[in-house]
Amino acid sequence: MNEDFEQVLIDNGVPTTEAEITDKFRTVLADSGSTIANNSNYSPFWRLISAIATKPFLWLVQLLIKNVMPQFFLKTVGESFIELWGDSYNCPRKQSQFLKGRVVFTRTDTVGAFTVPAGTVVYTDLINNTIYRVFTDIDTVFKDGEVGLIVSVTSENAATAYNLEAGYFSKCDLDGVSVTNPDDWIDQVGADVEEIKAYRARIRNAFNTLSHYHTDGVYKFLISSWVGVQADKIWFQHDAPRGPGTANAYLLFDLNAPAQSYLETINRQISTEGHHGHGDDVIAYNMPETAHDLITTLYFSDALLDEEKEIKKAAVYNAIYAAFRGNAAYEMTKTAPFSRFSFTNLAGELYDLVDGIEDIEFSLNSIVSELSIPVLSSLSVVEG
């Protein structure tokens, strides 16, 4: 892209290389009537004058090409200036956010009252060398005879990686008490600071808000202003799903989708803002899911110890879940709507990730998705 900006300067007669600047300098000297005769490249005087004239100009030209001109275009603007672009279109950058959700504590001895104190740590197993933790928000009491207790929690850090699927947060240090994060446990999604690529897409959608017509771009701008929602992960169904003048917007979250209450808040904004480009009825939904049971069989090298095999099986288990958007601990090719999920490609990524595996077999063939996202209802990783 720098070459494009350099060409703009060249087309307008601006020298961009040291040789061109030196030639231009000599031309200016000659046109000004300079009588310098000793202009050999080996002349100390000429080298000094040339360096004084050409080097600073070259630095300025390169600064213009690499740092200044890219800031004039949304496609190339960098971290230092993109928020100024966003401010121009009333599109502030989304900041990091702590996850808030609910976990379920269960106790074995139901006699008497028992308090789960605020700050109780609920954590995961080791996932790619990281343990994720959430903390209970308030003191909550098991009443006499009560078996289960729902407790609100907040993540240790503000990050997307805490939006884990049900069952990941399964550890606590309370005697006689077990814990898990159930389905639909997320009330507020955790999020990192918005990546520049996603922010560019939102600003581009903001261009539509300058129009008087409420198109897909306007709805994308409204919906993607919520943390956890990206503009390029919203799909519209326009064919009047609930009758004339209706449309659906399907949202795909990076990891586990939040509870329905989160979407209800988004939908209230759509309705109260009075945007009716598709009619009088636009509703946002989570992307529909198709559930799949997967058995993965690993064949290991004979040189591995049993303990090593168990560690590698756990890594494969979590890496596969990462591919199915269950966690963000591994960089895997993820499932997506309107695509084919290839288990051949998944096997290749697992070979690169975990050494000592000689062969991998899957119980499923490729999964072809339309307006849906494949998820795992069960996953078994076994040794062949």
What does this structure look like?
There is one protein chain. The protein is of the alpha+beta class and 384 residues long. The chain has four domains: 2-72, no CATH class; 100-188, no CATH class; 196-286, GMP Synthetase, Chain A, domain 3, CATH 3.30.300; 290-383, no CATH class. Helices cover 31% and strands 22% of the residues. Helix 7 (260-273) links the parallel strand 10 (246-251) and strand 11. Helix 2 crosses helix 3 (44-68) and helix 5 packs across helix 6 (216-224).
Key features of this structure:
single chain, 384 residues, GMP Synthetase, Chain A, domain 3, six-stranded antiparallel sheet, three-stranded mixed sheet, 22% strand
Any low-confidence stretches, pLDDT <50, length ≥5? none
Total number of helical segments?
A: 9
* Average predicted confidence as pLDDT: 87
Strand portion: 15-25%
Instruction: Give the SSE order as H and E letters.
Output: HHHHEEEEEEEEHHEEHEEHEHEEE
Give the end-to-end Cα distance, rounded to a whole number of Å. Answer: 50 Å
**Biggest sheet features:** 6 strands, antiparallel
The assigned structural class equals alpha+beta
- Count of extended strands: 16
Radius of gyration: 29 Å
Shape: elongated
Q: Can you give the helix content as a percent range?
A: 25-40%
- The total number of structural domains is 4
